[in-house]
Amino acid sequence: xxxxxxxxxxxxxxxxxxxxxxxxxxxxxxxxxxxxxxxxxxxxxxxxxxxxxxxxxxxxxxxxxxxxxxxxxxxxxxxxxxxxxxxxxxxxxxxxxxxxxxxxxxxxxxxxxxxxxxxxxxxxxxxxxxxxxxxxxxxxxxxxxxxxxxxxxxxxxxxxxxxxxxxxxxxxxxxxxxxxxxxxxxxxxxxxxxxxxxxxxxxxxxxxxxxxxxxxxxxxxxxxxxxxxxxxxxxxxxxxxxxxxxxxxxxxxxxxxxxxxxxxxxxxxxxxxxxxxxxxxxxxxx
Amino acid sequence: xxxxxxxxxxxxxxxxxxxxxxxxxxxxxxxxxxxxxxxxxxxxxxxxxxxxxxxxxxxxxxxxxxxxxxxxxxxxxxxxxxxxxxxxxxxxxxxxxxxxxxxxxxxxxxxxxxxxxxxxxxxxxxxxxxxxxxxxxxxxxxxxxxxxxxxxxxxxxxxxxxxxxxxxxxxxxxxxxxxxxxxxxxxxxxxxxxxxxxxxxxxxxxxxxxxxxxxxxxxxxxxxxxxxxxxxxxxxxxxxxxxxxxxxxxxxxxxxxxxxxxxxxxxxxxxxxxxxxxxxxxxxxxxxxxxxxxxxxxxxxxxxxxxxxxxxxxxxxxxxxxxxxxxxxxxxxxxxxxxxxxxxxxxxxxxxxxxxxxxxxxxxxxxxxxxxxxxxxxxxxxxxxxxxxxxxxxxxxxxxxxxxxxxxxxxxxxxxxxxxxxxxxxxxxxxxxxxxxxxxxxxxxxxxxxxxxxxxxxxxxxxxxxxxxxxxxxxxxxxxxxxxxxxxxxxxxxxxxxxxxxxxxxxxxxxxxxxxxxxxxxxxxxxxxxxxxxxxxxxxxxxxxxxxxxxxxxxxxxxxxxxxxxxxxxxxxxxxxxxxxxxxxxxxxxxxxxxxxxxxxxxxxxxxxxxxxxxxxxxxxxxxxxxxxxxxxxxxxxxxxxxxxxxxxxxxxxxxxxxxxxxxxxxxxxxxxxxxxxxxxxxxxxxxxxxxxxxxxxxxxxxxxxxxxxxxxxxxxxxxxxxxxxxxxxxxxxxxxxxxxxxxxxxxxxxxxxxxxxxxxxxxxx
Lengths: 286, 766
Prior knowledge:
The structure holds two protein chains of two kinds. Chain A is α+β, with helices and mostly antiparallel strands. Chain A folds into two domains: 51-167, 2-Layer Sandwich (Uridine Diphospho-n-acetylenolpyruvylglucosamine Reductase, domain 3); 174-285, Enolase-like, domain 1 (2-Layer Sandwich), CATH 3.30.390. Chain A has helices spanning 9-18, 32-37, 73-77, 80-85, 87-94, 99-102, 107-112, 120-126, 224-230, 237-250, 261-285; strands at residues 2-4, 23-26, 45-48, 58-61, 64-68, 130-135, 138-143, 148-150, 153-154, 161-167, 174-181, 192-200, 206-214, 221-222. In chain A, the strands form four sheets. A five-stranded antiparallel β-sheet of chain A has the order 4-5-10-6-7. In chain A, a hairpin with a 2-residue loop joins strand 4 (58-61) and strand 5. In chain A, helix 9 runs antiparallel to helix 10 (237-250) and helix 10 (237-250) crosses helix 11. The longest helix of chain A has 25 residues, at 261-285. By secondary structure, chain B is an alpha+beta fold. Among the domains of chain B are: 429-463 and 616-766, Aldehyde Oxidoreductase, domain 4; 467-612, Aldehyde oxidase/xanthine dehydrogenase, molybdopterin binding domain (Aldehyde Oxidoreductase, domain 4), CATH 3.30.365. In chain B, the strands form seven sheets. Chain B has a seven-stranded mixed β-sheet with strand order 3-7-1-14-11-12-13, sandwiched between helices. In chain B, a hairpin with a 5-residue loop joins strand 19 and strand 20 (482-486). In chain B, helix 11 runs parallel beside helix 20, helix 12 (407-414) packs antiparallel against helix 13 and helix 19 packs across helix 20. The relative contact order of chain B is 0.13.
């Protein structure tokens, strides 16, 4: 296995594009190293992206934030302005692993590992985040929900690297929240995850919303029907009940060692209602 | 009531200086700085890395094993398979709390005719690097004939179930069955007449229960380094609860003299019973003997789960009857324990413990030891007892509620006490069950208000505790310090508590005594750390060795003073004339006597070699509050109190640590831990991500109350405390859930999906 740690994006893209055999990007390594040790993968080339400055910065952009794909959960948690604008994104990233893991785990890695249960992904999609992707044919921008296509599968072409995420500017009275269910209190993988972002108008009516479910299908699901249950309402009991029903209806989970189909479908509704209430309280304060 | 136990070798009015205090442990600094050497921390020059090839099948006949390609891979220095181990006669030998059979053991460390579980060892290689060893494993060709498998205990008992051992005839049944089955043996304990007893009962509760196999989940995986020289002398470093037991097993399995194997125990990162058996050690020795180089082997976590022993899962039926005034008239239990691939589940102790907390006239317990295609079970903290007592304590709670009685009062009305004849035979000496129940009832926790969706449960538990063969030596150094040599690996702070007893006897400061765990060639045979025996048995040996040293110290002073040795007494670290008639001499300190030892007869060394008898059983009562999230089924333990009889807490902080650790393991057992097998018979969760032991944030601070009803058979009144704390939690939590939800769960673990489903069913039904 060859290990490279290029200092420019162009060099990284060239390495990936020119490689024969299986390649892997190394950011925090919190998934990659586990997979290597368990012999689930045997890549011919591992490209460490942590020396590429563009992947490691958080910057203000167009009233929003651009977050490098290799920024760690701990760095996100320490960024006060980001946390104030996107508490749901930050809390989702901070749920990944222990304090030690938080010093390594990244948003880009969490997305590109392509687990249906990735915690930060529902929050990023709910936030309407756009991924900036570098590749042999230049840059392209794609909504985060278009990156993962199935367990371990992405739409990235050979040589492409997710460089950063753009979180858009926030209108007033907006906020987000992420909740997951795990049997333990930490150090676990979501049985169900729900990310919700919403915006209220001056009267407190929900003008815009995005509802995203994790761990209930082969990939993270953006559920417009669930968002519609909230839009145009005061996010009252009736709206929350419809939200829950829409969330459950969108689930297409499997039975596995982490939970049954029935359980995931029921709990998706519960978490959707609870996450919406948290986002609502936060939005009212903004 | 610390420091006022009046027993044993001490004068009745003697105040204890060390026993009952909380000094720092001698191994503490090394452990927090990372200096301590655990099993995987040993290395030797020229060392090879050993790896095991494991079966991917739950059950298959091995038609052939071809290692030729692996053997010629550059860097491979040795390969072993079944052909490198002699077959053994069927012979059961006691191994503390469990029985072992060498015929089974040789097959468990290396599969012979068949593989019997996913993860069963089939071959092992030693190579110059980890990478070469892994490549070599891939070059070994095993031709398997897959066979139907059986994972569940009830399915294994069906007449048409796949047979693991074609020659297994159930023992303990008259007449003997004429056909083989997966039931290895049937055990029965009975007193009185249960039918007559149930006829007198006014209320009867009868339920069936299921528990899943759970792993001891020690954080440190199995690891060892073996080095066998050209002349057959072997050194072995390993993480184990009993290096003398490892030596004995390896000598038998490899046909070696015991004297040729010297075993040194490393620091141990948890064992809980699971490190009382051998897995890697005989393989490492065999590889090293072949390669004539040291061989290191370390299990991955995946291997620990797939191939080392959990405790049994079980299916049980419990029936208890009582009169309306709360007197139990009869109790009955059927216990079906799965043993894993080879017989020897802890169903016998499970059957003995089931009703041990109660003073009963009519009891019948029948136990079945059943083999299944899972890893062979190993001891796990009070082996067998947490399973049967869980089921019984749930029924006791339900009966109390049906009778309208407080569950502690109901237990008090039926509690075993001194003089009670236990259902399994013996009469109890002084025991502390009643005291733990009284303390629990008086504890503020028991009457504290509960919040919404919360419930409170209690349960009691019992474990025998054991003594056994034990050596100790105490070297008095020339400067008045001492070295204590013991043979029981220190799992729970025993070096500290043993030194405290030595300091008490010698009358010198604790920090003047340095303890070591001696290797098998330095100290006489000592049985393993298990059965909650170390503070009791190694404690007795330490006290005996210290008294032997004191006797010699008195003799030396007598020699100097030219008076008879019985005219010298030992007090607070000084030799003194025993009375006015003995003469008028200035007392001599231990250091003063030690300094001139060379001139008065040579070095002073206290020795003890005992078979410790009179271990005192320990009873405990737990109180737990749970809170249920009715929408997700999540159960949170919000408050927990352990009340247990320690006899005498030598080091109360470590006693409390045992109470807390047992409760936490029990919380995991109750709520989330289970082995999940696929249809293909392969283990799906061999790792801590999906085998969910509690993390720190899952549990509240566990409160503890140490009750001290002294064990009259120990000089300081010590009882073992390590195992009893894992017995009550599962029932206490189940009973708390019944209080919170009005639902009686009869299956472990009570994981969120199961709890949510039960809540849904109750809502639909009610």
